[in-house]
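User: My collaborator and I are trying to settle a disagreement about how two of our proteins should look. Neither of us wants to argue from intuition anymore, so we agreed to look at predicted structures for both before our next call. Could you fold the first one, then the second, and keep them clearly separated?

Assistant: That sounds like a sensible way to settle it. I'll keep them separate. The first protein:
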Amino acid sequence: MKRHLYFATLAALGAASSLTAHACATCGCTLSTDAAMGYSATAGVRVGLQYDYIDQDELRHGTGTVSPAQVVNDPTTGELEHRTVSRFTTLGVSYSPDARWNVALLVPYLVRDHSSYTDTTSAPFDESQLDPSNLSSSHSSSLGDVKLIASYQGFLPTHNFGVQLGVKLPTGRYGGPNADGTGTVGRNPVTFSSGPSAGELLDTSLQPGTGSTDIIAGAYYYQAISQNFDAFVNGQLQAAVATKLDQAGADFRPGNLGVVSVGLRYEADPRIVPQLQLNVSRKSHDQGALADVQDSAGTVAYVSPGVTVSASHNTFVYAFVQLPVYSRLDGYQLFPRWTATAGISHAF
């Protein structure tokens, strides 16, 4: 197992990156960054930056795509969304006092552009409802929800099995309208900046944060399966245990999110490590008066090819693309045709 020590990198630093639904239904990046970088049993401090790009531009329902007419003509649906582009830059700092323990802090900064059509849910559908004059847009850039995760991998002498326990804090902007619609609840929620809905609040599920404190629990295992190949499997569950949006008629609780990833790493040359992941996630429905309950649950699977490269001593860069191979979404949701992740880390 010595070759794993070449990757004295993120260990648990990428742990939360596999649970980045980011308050936007089932859209989020599910890449396992900790596995991408290689689990580490080396003590020290590690600092990294990761960039995630998620472009939701395809309306989907169940296992297939849908047309705007299907959304509008369904009497149970909500607004007709157009596009959501999210860009996350996450600063990670982790500390491992020895081969058994690791503590990681992840601080995301989110830039998000969202657009949807106003007053287009009046059936029957006609093309005039897609006129650009009906399009309302928003732009936000702010701190997201910070995560703190501890990992322990001292169960086996090889340190190749570990468990994780962490917390997500409500540090990002969040909120929505109050119960009687005369004001807002939360912390500086984002509003539409242009179009017919200018000045109105963006959906609570699309805010930079959820307003909830979540518990994160997970486990991972990795093993050399031949001279040049390593395999891994990991899983995480994230669930809200407290929420600041708890007023009657103005409450919101994000759905639970679980992610399981398996993959292979080709380590013939530790300086360049191609790899392939399969990431599967399941999100339950958001709950509360401010939740878009019917459009917030689903199961998705991605195939994620990528590579990790040793740029210099103790410095590594990585890049991945996620390609959806399966989705079963409740209601009508915007979904990405692909997502991209790139990062750099340095061990001290």
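The second protein, kept apart from the first:
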Amino acid sequence: MIEAGLPRHVPRGVRPALDELLDLRRYGVGMRRLLALDAERREGTRASAARSQGMDYAESRPYSPGDDVRRIDWRVTARTGRAHTKIFRPERGGDVVCLVDQRAPMRFGTRAAFKSVVAAHVAALAGWAAAAGGERFGAHISGARARHVPLGAAEGAAATLCSALAAQEPGEEEPLERLAALAAAEAPLGTRFVLVCDLAEPEEAL
């Protein structure tokens, strides 16, 4: 059974444990509520309806009785002499992409855990939140060798992210701005992003 709450324990240690990250699956529904994913989906649906059903033009076909006259393609109609209707492709929505910081400054913390461990737990929860809603999920990691989880079925993608985070193999420490730009360029329209970092950069040496 998937629990609706959120973990009450504080992550501990200097590296995330795979079994702990996978066990966070039970909190997917609770994290989903915290991220307001369902609320965003409803808002996106209303906004799409206001934008002419929020669809992209696909093609035109001959007009059939009952078609919405507001969608008549007047250019094709004038060229062919026969009424044509525009066909639209629905926008893709519901995808979730997580950007998680695992760079060297995150490998520091209090007596409880490194910031990188806490970030790994939050990122895993984001993946399980997407899985709880049956959405697609993907991730980009800065500071780890396995730094890209392709957008796909959230159940498998979240597990892949957990494995990558638990492996703790240092890799390219790509700036978050560049990582975000790459993710935004690859993501379909309507994708929701979850950024997991401390939003603090080390002070420059004087």
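Some points you might bring to the call about the second protein. Helices lie at 18-23, 28-34, 37-50, 74-80, 115-132, 154-167, 176-186. Residues 83 and 195 are 48 Å apart (CA to CA).
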